[in-house]
Structure formats: C-alpha cells, structure tokens
Design a protein that fits this description.
Layout lengths: L9 H22 L6 H14 L3 E5 L2 H11 L7 E4 L6 H8 L3 E4 L11 H7 L4 E5 L10 H11 L2 E5 L7 E2 L2 E2 L6 E5 L13 E5 L2 H11 L20 H11 L2 H19 L13 E2 L5 E4 L3 H10 L28 H9 E4 L7 H16 L1
Helix pairs in contact: 1-8, 2-8, 3-4, 3-7, 9-12, 10-12
C-alpha cells in the first residue's frame, strides 16, 4: 500500500523539543528580553566553540550574514565576486546588493559544488572575492579554492547556509576562508523557529566590522560610525537554536542514515545518487539525485503523494533578476544538472517505511 510522504515535517521535530523549548521561551517572555541579550551572546559563544571559530556574530537571516560579510570584507562597486550559479538566489543577489558583479563559474559534475578549474578561468584583475557554497551539505573543495584566492589576492567568504556540521578533513565548513555565513531558516539542519543567521570568523577586526554593520553601525553609545543595518537576532530564536544545537550532530547522523538507506534501495536503477568526495562529512541538507526524464518522474511522484523538490531548476544567470550577469556562453555542467536534478525527502524524523515508500515510488516512475 502506497503511503504519502512529506518533503519535510517540522512539527515532528518541535513536538519532541517542546519540554525543553517552551520553558526557555516562557522565561524570556517574563523577563521582557527580546532583542540581543544574554541568550544571543550564549548562542554566539556556543556556535563559535562548536565550529572551532574565534568569533560568531548572530543576525536576522542567512542572507544578511552573506551581505554583511561581503560588506565587511570591503566588497563594493567595481569589484567582481566569483560564485556558483547552482544555488539559492541569495548567494548572488547579496553580491549585487554589495555593489559588486557576480561572476558565475561552472560546477563539479559529481558534488555540484564550484569547480576550481572553472573558478581559475574566471579570475580577472577585478576579482575581489570568491564565494563557494557547500551545496546540499557537502563541503566544497576548499584547499583548491583557497589556493586560487591566494594567487589573485581575493578573500573567500563561505556560503554555509546548507552545511552546518559538515566537515572537510575534520574541519568545519565556515572556518576555511575569511568568514563563513550560515542560515538558520526553519528548514536548515540547525534551524530557528523563524529566521536567523550567523557569521563566523577568526579575525577580531572583521568580527567587529560585521557586528557594527548588523546594529546600525553603532560604535560608542549614540555614535554611528558607518551606515549599517537592522540585522539583529531575537532572543526567542537564540533560545530555540541553543536547544537544537545540542542535538544537531545526532540529527545530521540520522540524515546520513537516510541517505545510506536510499543508496541501498535505489541501487541498480537509472538514477545517480549523491557522491561524497574523499575527506568530507556530508550532512545532507538535501538528498539530490540525477534522473532521466526528470519532469515526468516528478509528476509521477506527485501523483503518488511523495514529497520532492527541484533544487535548482535553472542556473542563477537564467533568472530574470540576474540575467545581466550571464556568462558569455552557458556553463555546460550546470545546464545539464539543472535539467536532471531532483531532491527526495531527507530529515531526521523520516521513518523507515517512508524511505521505502519513496524509493518504491521512484523505482515505479523510472521503470514503468
């Protein structure tokens, strides 16, 4: 008997957390502490310690984390920033909002992360920064990208929106470049019950610039040194994130177990399951496969009540907002991947019978 399977079910997670989460929120409501304060400061210290970074600066979204990191790095008008076209729009739109020009490089056909060879070809005298995305929870090739950045004098800002807890050779994403920008959007591996983000860095000066930008540019009381933003994390979200941080390793392990079960069940079918590069700990924010006749398969899954999504159906340079930044020629790997990718349900609370139902429905769609 076919069962319906959701792409994601956040209610399952929050039911299990209620006994820990609600008393913390009640205490904050009674104290009237809503913006910043001790709860946010504790979260910053705990995230920095978890990731192995010197500083963490919390703010209101992962998008602002990217934007403020770029601004704090001095990215602005006349600069070019090399990044991936296979990502959420914020990866590139924040570059535009910083005043710079996004330059799109192609992706690796196995990991879907930035191709270092393509990045090297995209470098010009105006390259100010490189923004790799640790896509779907797998670290990008940071040693190769850092070598390129050193060679051209660029800074590296890591987009870690999908990679909290992922490691490369035992080192956490977000700690390789000048800074890492994380999202706490409700669907993320470490997620708020609303929105939130954080920037991590080992630079004292950089952390101070980010912190100032996130709070209206304030220096001393009633002194505003730069024109900043209102990008502060609220205490209720910090409390939720602290509860969840203690569980994120177990949740990421559960995601890997789901992926391993999919690999078993889908073996022998005409589907390319996720490749994990050597030295990587993948945290499977998404479980993305490559399929023939993707749109037909997606329709069959929809009719069977199986949750799925397409991340991402077209390269960012084919989005109307970013068409002005399209490369001279389409990038062949990303064009191919965008036409064949499909993401299957992967979340810690997914049950064994649900995983089997997804695999069975996919098998029927591929062979029927």
């Amino acid at each position: 008997m076919t069962i319906a399977v959701p792409m994601l079910d956040l209610a399952r997670q929050h039911r299990a957390l209620a006994a820990d989460l609600l008393p913390r929120w009640q205490a904050l409501l009674e104290a009237g502490q809503f913006i910043g304060g001790a709860e946010v400061e504790r979260l910053e210290r705990e995230v920095a310690a978890y990731l192995g970074a010197r500083h963490a600066v919390a703010m209101n979204s992962g998008t602002d984390a990217l934007l403020l990191a770029l601004r704090a790095a001095g990215v602005g008008a006349g600069d070019e920033v090399i990044t991936t076209p296979f990502s959420f729009v914020a990866t590139a739109s924040t570059i535009v909002h910083a005043g710079a020009r996004p330059v799109f490089a192609d992706i690796d056909p196995q990991t879907f992360n930035l191709s270092p060879a393509s990045v090297a070809r995209a470098v010009t005298a105006r390259t100010k920064a490189i923004v790799p995305v640790h896509l779907f929870g797998q670290p990008a090739d940071m040693p190769a990208l850092l070598d390129i950045a050193r060679g051209c004098g660029a800074v590296v800002i890591e987009d870690c929106a999908q990679s909290f807890g992922a490691t490369l050779d035992g080192r956490q994403t977000g700690t390789f470049g000048l800074a890492g920008a994380f999202s706490f959007y409700p669907t993320k591996n470490l997620a708020a019950c609303g929105d939130g983000g954080i920037v991590v860095t080992d630079s004292d000066d950089f952390a101070e610039r980010v912190r100032r930008l996130a709070n209206h540019g304030v220096g001393a009381p009633q002194e505003y040194r730069v024109c900043g933003f209102n990008s502060r994390l609220d205490a209720l979200q910090a409390a939720a994130l602290r509860v969840k941080l203690a569980r994120v390793d177990a949740w990421n392990a559960a995601r890997r177990a789901v992926a391993a079960r999919y690999a078993e069940l889908l073996r022998g079918l005409p589907v390319v399951t996720p490749h994990i590069a050597p030295g990587r700990t993948h945290v499977f924010h998404q479980h993305t496969v490559l399929l023939p006749q993707r749109d037909r398969v997606a329709q069959a899954l929809r009719e069977a009540g199986i949750g799925h999504a397409i991340f991402y159906p077209r390269p960012l340079y084919r989005q109307p907002a970013l068409a002005a930044y399209a490369p001279p020629q389409p990038l062949p790997v990303v064009e191919d991947v965008c036409g064949r990718c499909l993401s299957l349900p992967v979340f810690p609370e997914l049950e064994g019978q649900e995983i089997e139902a997804v695999a069975a429905a996919l098998a029927r769609a591929l062979t029927g």
